[in-house]
Amino acid sequence: MLPVSVCMIAKNEDNHIEECLKRLRPCKFEIVVVDTGSVDRTVEIARKYTDKVFHFAWCDDFSAARNFSIQQASNDWVLVIDCDEYLENVNLAELEDSLAGNDHAVGMIVRNNPYIIQGVRSIMSERIGRLFHKHYCHYEGCIHEQVCTLDGREPKSFQIPLTFYHEGYVTESDKRMRATRNLEMLLHDLELKGPSPYIYFQLGQNYISLNDLEKASYYYQKGLELDADPKSAFVQSMTETYGYCLLELAKYDLAMKLREKYELFSHRADFVYLMGMIYMKKGCYAKAIEEFRKATTLSSCSRKGVNSYRANYNIASIYENMGQSEEAINYYRKCGDYEPAVRKLKEMKGKPS
Question: Is 259 domain-assigned?
Fold first, then answer.
């Protein structure tokens, strides 16, 4: 058994928690579940998988609940997950090896998040800090809590061989209710702590959940105006999501100002692809093709396809609109089984030459 305790907080998660715990069972981790007031079968299901089920009186503070769960762990190393995160891949031997010498660092899991773009289901992958030594780190922040060191220093990080799929499905009404609750807590945090890139980022994320792109882009912009580390995953995400908001709002000139951040983020296929989209919307087709081609040469990305079939599809679309059918067909073919490209090839094949 690995010296790792999986710590979870839960409330009314009987539609997720069984799948989550079932996938963890073969790893033989210690599992700690802290319930914050469920009225469904969450506690009953949790007890099928662990005898370490505790109750915590909810106090509008996610960090307080997280830290309580960590206190119940028998092991010094804790892995924090949510009930709607399902284990996909793990290498237990490598995981155990990675713990040695990393007592003062945070282990970064891979989390795959499904989303819909242009009517097609896709995946966005992200690295997030979830594994740490409980005598070095804890959680801070009432809402959208973060792993912080106990001594206030910036934590170092290391990669761990753990991948989770984030189911994350909620009804539209639940989604709005959660976002509204989160906004109240975030605005309270903002009032207490003052301007913060991370709080502005989370405000933007919640307005995205409410489909209010104007307010989302407003808070993303405010976050990017502050001094934030461009190497931080949330800053990279904020920059790119801000760009997509501006595209959706047809604020192409404002989106074009992201060129000023090109040197900071152009190592990521996501950002280069975004710039290709901005140039395409502005009618700068040669520059758009240049960026999409560059995106296909980069390995670092979060959104699936931005460095392969999605970039090639946009190049093909540009060539098709310019009447360059042979080039268009060539790039549609590079998209493999990407359904929109397959349909385009059938349409073009049926057209008279």
Answer: no
